[in-house]
Write a structure and sequence with these properties.
- It catalyses: Acts on substrates that are at least partially unfolded. The cleavage site P1 residue is normally between a pair of hydrophobic residues, such as Val-|-Val.
- It is found in: Periplasm.
- GO terms for molecular function: serine-type endopeptidase activity.
- The structure is a single chain.
- The chain folds into 3 domains: about 220 residues, Thrombin, subunit H, CATH 2.40.10.120; about 110 residues, Pdz3 Domain; about 80 residues, PDZ domain (Pdz3 Domain, Roll), CATH 2.30.42.10.
- Helices cover about 20% and strands about 35% of the residues.
- It has 10 helices and 30 strands.
- The strands form 5 sheets. Strands 1, 3, 4, 5, 6, 7, 8 and 9 form an 8-stranded antiparallel β-sheet that branches.
- The protein is elongated and about 80 Å long.
- The relative contact order is 0.09.
Length: about 475
């Protein structure tokens, strides 16, 4: 059977029309209107610097997690290097948002508009903790972008990015929101940004560009990608609008950012710890250490408390607490709900302030002289040098862990310093023996340790 060329073309055309109809029927979005209206307010950032961007050397950024700022140069330190990123205008008189790592260490910052006009920019302020920066150019009646309302973005929602990947000006990519509230701690262990994860194709040069919803509103600022090759593999991260609004307003008014600070070291609650604290499931932020005279200390928080809500917001995991606290204005007095001694209590906390140069931060942790006794450890008294080095008032050092014992099952290791069993402080061998003797058979109790200088809790279940 022969098929004419004409008939073949007709079949191809019919198939194309059918596919187009299926696309329309599927309700896939049309981005052309958003791109047309929003592109004029997206800018290209050109940076001239005498060295590599601060904090962005290859030894400081994990291979798999990169901030996608394109930097070009021949490596000669005496010659200027040119870097490129993206940004967007938020005020008709010239205020522009971009990433801190785009302009960090810059000697000169140029802003290029979509109509090819160029302006030299002044850096109003930067905030490395959120990776945001605010610039100003001398111009008027500029096109602007609007921020979306915080909290309205949903997982699965379509989003759009505009930027200059690899120097290709005003490129558009689209995808969906893969997750919200992603925690990506910095090299200093700080964790103040609940990142938006998307599958939007993002590449070097997109840094600082806007992430839009289908209303053309900015829902985030593109900041990082997860990659092993240096290019997009469908895992990109944006700073959410809730953080952007807070930081930008402070940078505009003060040129710096002060965020809420609680003064605790925290860790996640696992299944064993949840049971030992009387929780129905793993949840909350377990307080491992309280800074002396800090806001938490003055409010009466203790090591071993589990924070389950803060300022009326649930705290599902420890990484959620810094996200909430960081957005609260210093000096605000808020309620925090805790679990202590298997009972719920509510405390009032006056949130402290963490300035840009302060080194304090909310940090998230990881999760007897006989034959081991009831819990299966051989311990010795901690010497004064160890206590002083790790700022401990007392404790016992685990010398040996009996295989198959409750301590071994819980993950206790030789060298750990036990400082608390249940609610009983352990400052000596006698205190340790007394605390262990008082434990009930089959009970599940929290055990507070210091491991290589880092405090943490683990859940210990005794045998029947």
């Amino acid at each position: 059977m022969k098929v004419s060329i004409k008939n073949t073309l007709l079949l191809v055309i019919a198939a194309g029309l059918l596919f187009a109809a299926q696309v329309r029927a599927a309700g896939l979005p049309d981005f052309t209107e958003i791109v047309g209206e929003s592109s004029p307010a997206v800018v290209k950032i050109i940076v001239e610097a005498s060295g590599p961007p601060q904090g962005q050397g290859p030894q400081e950024v994990p291979e798999y997690l990169r901030r996608f700022f394109e930097f070009r140069g021949d490596g000669a330190p005496q010659r200027p290097r040119m870097g490129m990123g993206s940004g967007f205008i938020i005020d008709a008189d010239g205020l522009i948002v971009t990433n801190d790592h785009v302009v960090s260490g810059a000697d000169k910052v140029l802003v290029r508009m979509s109509d090819r006009r160029e302006f030299e920019a002044e850096i109003v302020g930067t905030d490395p903790r959120s990776d945001l920066a605010l610039l100003r150019i001398d111009a008027e009646k500029l096109p602007v972008l609007e921020f979306a309302d915080a909290g309205e973005l949903q997982v699965g929602e379509w989003v759009l990015a505009i930027g200059s990947p690899f120097g290709l000006d005003y490129s558009v990519t689209a995808g969906i929101v893969s997750a919200k509230g992603r925690s990506l701690p910095t090299e200093n262990g700080e964790n103040y940004v609940p990142f938006i994860q998307t599958d939007v194709a993002i590449n070097p040069g997109n840094s600082g560009g806007p992430l839009f919803n289908l209303e053309g509103e900015v829902v985030g600022v593109n900041s990082q990608i997860f990659t092993r090759s240096g290019g997009s593999i469908g895992l990109s991260f944006a700073i959410p609008v809730s953080v952007v609004r807070n930081v930008v307003s402070q940078l505009e008014e003060h040129g710096k950012v002060t965020r809420g600070w609680l003064g605790v070291t925290i860790q996640d609650v696992d299944k064993n710890l949840a049971e030992s604290f009387g929780l129905d499931r793993p949840r909350g932020a377990l307080v491992v250490q309280v800074a002396e005279d800090g806001p938490a200390d003055e409010a009466g928080l203790r090591e071993g408390d589990v924070i389950v809500t803060f300022d009326g917001k649930d705290i599902p995991t420890s990484s959620d607490l810094p996200h909430v606290v960081g957005l609260i204005a210093p000096g605000a007095r808020v309620s925090t709900e805790i679990v202590r001694d298997r009972k719920r209590r509510t405390l009032k906390v006056e949130v402290g302030g963490l300035a840009a140069d302060d080194s304090y931060a909310l940090a998230s942790g990881g999760a007897e002289g006989d034959e081991g006794g009831r819990i299966g450890v051989v311990v010795v008294e901690a010497d004064n040098e160890m206590l002083e080095r790790w700022s401990l008032s007392g404790g016992v050092v685990v010398h040996e862990v009996v295989p198959g014992s409750p301590a071994a099952e819980a993950g206790v290791r030789p060298g750990d310093v036990i400082t608390l069993i249940g609610n009983t402080p352990v400052k000596s061998l006698d205190a340790f023996a007394s605390a262990v003797e008082g434990l009930e058979a089959g009970a599940s109790v929290p055990l507070r340790l210091t491991r290589r200088g880092t405090p943490l809790f683990i859940g210990l279940r005794l045998e029947q």
